[in-house]
């Protein structure tokens, strides 16, 4: 946890990052279809706009739209005003577009740098957690096993794609027939459906919405059950494919063992989510904060991984940040619904949330600060590059 003191990347690591070359895999069919649109729209960006600023604006649009949804219902179980679903759909499209053209803007302005990959993929990791929380919200899953599966189905592919790049040096855009762009369009559609048909559309019976369907496909089922199959259970299936692909990408017994330990470590993130006790009313009503606390762990580990693969530093299997949750879970285990235990639980709950936010922000600040200083560039501004002193 040296990043807390402002130092994470070693001197050799900085040199490796400077010489790092991003090797992307092939575009998905959907990416190829949209590429002419992205090439056209990037021309509307001003030349002074830094590529990282382009990415950040897209993330802010998505994050701001979803935070508004969360303000209306922190439990993630109740319908919210219909316009928020439209705002989230617009936010997803904005992030998708700006995330796709940030690299084009970098080449257009001659401002490409290794910092771009770190910043871009770091924002990607945050965006996918927002999208998975959005699924939990519009389906009304709250803090539940299916809610955790929703997080798993979105977070596992991205994390493992970066682990595969750690092993092979190539970042793949798609998982089998599924790619991120197509998944984003599906989420836009489901949010727009809530906007046009009502916030409670997913709680309606299939037999009422589609009366022509056979009884065995409609009786007892809500629309949300079908959407869960499409967005969650299929995603869980793809995650198994990713695990196999990850293990195959690791050459040699030692690397395969490392990959296996990384899988176990990553599953620990969902273990943290599961340990939050939804039977406690306060925890259930603040599901959004519980999820974000653990999501910070995912973002932190993913950003560590991206830095390590670019710097060729060793990515540790053990991360002591997991211990930050220990005090809360101990206090939760002693909870007995008395005013004293309720107060202690709330303090520990919010303290865990704040600490996770702070240390995640600190890691991002440290990594960006070290790189901008070493590369003599700015994160959000295009400026003249200084020549290195001989």
Molecular structure report:
Belongs to the CDP-alcohol phosphatidyltransferase class-I family. The chain crosses the membrane at residues 53-71, 83-101, 149-173, 223-246, 258-276, 288-310, 317-335, 347-364. InterPro entries: CDP-OH_P_trans (IPR000462), CDP-OH_PTrfase_TM_dom (IPR043130), CDP_ALCOHOL_P_TRANSF_CS (IPR048254), CHOPT (IPR014472). Keywords: Membrane, Transferase, Transmembrane, Transmembrane helix. This protein has 390 residues and is mainly α. Helices cover 70% and strands 1% of the residues. The chain has helices spanning 11-18, 29-41, 51-72, 82-109, 114-139, 145-168, 180-197, 206-209, 215-218, 223-249, 253-275, 281-285, 287-311, 326-333, 339-375; strands at 174-175, 178-179. A two-stranded antiparallel sheet has the order 1-2. A hairpin with a 2-residue loop joins strand 1 (174-175) and strand 2. The chain is globular, with a radius of gyration of 22 Å. Mean pLDDT is 88; it is low at 386-390.
Looking at this protein, list some descriptive labels:
mainly alpha, disordered C terminus, two-stranded antiparallel ribbon, 15 helices, membrane, 390 residues, 70% helix, globular
Structural class: mainly alpha
Number of strands: 2
Question: Count of DSSP helices?
Answer: 15
**Fraction of residues in helices?**
55-70%
Beta fraction of the residues?
under 5%
Task: Write down the overall mean pLDDT.
Answer: 88
Q: Give the spatial strand order of the biggest sheet.
A: 1-2
Distance between the termini: 33 Å
Largest sheet: 2 strands, antiparallel
In quaternary terms, these chains amount to: single chain
* Radius of gyration from the alpha-carbon trace, in angstroms: 22 Å
Shape: globular
Low-confidence stretches: 386-390
Helix and strand sequence: HHHHHHEEHHHHHHHHH
Keywords: Membrane, Transferase, Transmembrane, Transmembrane helix
InterPro entries: CDP-OH_P_trans, CDP-OH_PTrfase_TM_dom, CDP_ALCOHOL_P_TRANSF_CS, CHOPT
GO molecular function: phosphotransferase activity, for other substituted phosphate groups
Protein name: Ethanolaminephosphotransferase
């Amino acid at each position: 946890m040296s990043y807390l003191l402002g130092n994470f990347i070693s001197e050799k690591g900085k040199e490796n990052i400077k010489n790092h070359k991003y090797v992307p895999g092939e575009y998905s069919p959907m990416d190829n279809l949209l590429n002419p649109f992205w090439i056209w729209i990037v021309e509307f960006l001003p030349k002074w706009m830094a590529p990282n600023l382009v990415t950040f604006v897209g993330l802010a649009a998505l994050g701001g739209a979803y935070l508004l949804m969360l303000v209306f219902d922190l439990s993630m179980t109740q319908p919210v005003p219909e316009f928020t679903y439209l705002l989230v759909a617009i936010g997803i499209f904005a992030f998708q577009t700006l995330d796709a053209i940030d690299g084009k803007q970098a080449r257009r302005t001659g401002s490409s740098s290794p910092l771009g990959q770190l910043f871009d993929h770091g924002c990607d990791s945050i965006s996918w957690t927002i999208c998975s929380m959005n699924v939990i919200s519009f389906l009304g899953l709250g803090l539940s096993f299916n809610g955790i599966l929703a997080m798993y189905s979105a977070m596992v592919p991205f994390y493992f794609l970066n682990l595969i790049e750690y092993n092979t040096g190539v970042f793949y855009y798609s998982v089998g027939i599924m790619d991120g762009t197509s998944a984003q369009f599906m989420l836009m559609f489901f949010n727009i459906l809530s906007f046009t048909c009502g916030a409670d559309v997913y709680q309606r019976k299939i037999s009422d919405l589609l009366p022509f369907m056979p009884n065995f496909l409609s009786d007892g089922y809500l629309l949300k059950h079908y959407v869960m199959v499409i967005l969650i259970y299929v995603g869980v299936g793809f995650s198994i494919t990713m695990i196999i692909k990850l293990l195959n990408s690791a050459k040699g017994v030692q690397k395969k063992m490392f990959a296996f330990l990384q899988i176990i470590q990553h599953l620990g993130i969902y273990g943290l989510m599961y340990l939050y006790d939804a039977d406690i009313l306060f925890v259930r009503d603040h599901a959004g904060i519980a999820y974000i606390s653990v999501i910070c762990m995912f973002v932190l580990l993913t950003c560590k991984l991206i830095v390590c693969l670019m710097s060729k530093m060793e990515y540790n299997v053990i991360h002591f940040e997991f211990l930050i949750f220990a005090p809360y879970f101990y206090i939760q285990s002693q909870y007995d619904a008395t005013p004293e235990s309720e107060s202690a639980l709330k303090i520990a709950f919010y303290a865990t949330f704040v600490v996770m936010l702070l240390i995640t922000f600190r890691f991002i600040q440290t990594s960006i600060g070290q790189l901008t200083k070493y590369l003599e560039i700015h994160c959000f501004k295009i400026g003249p590059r200084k020549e290195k002193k001989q």
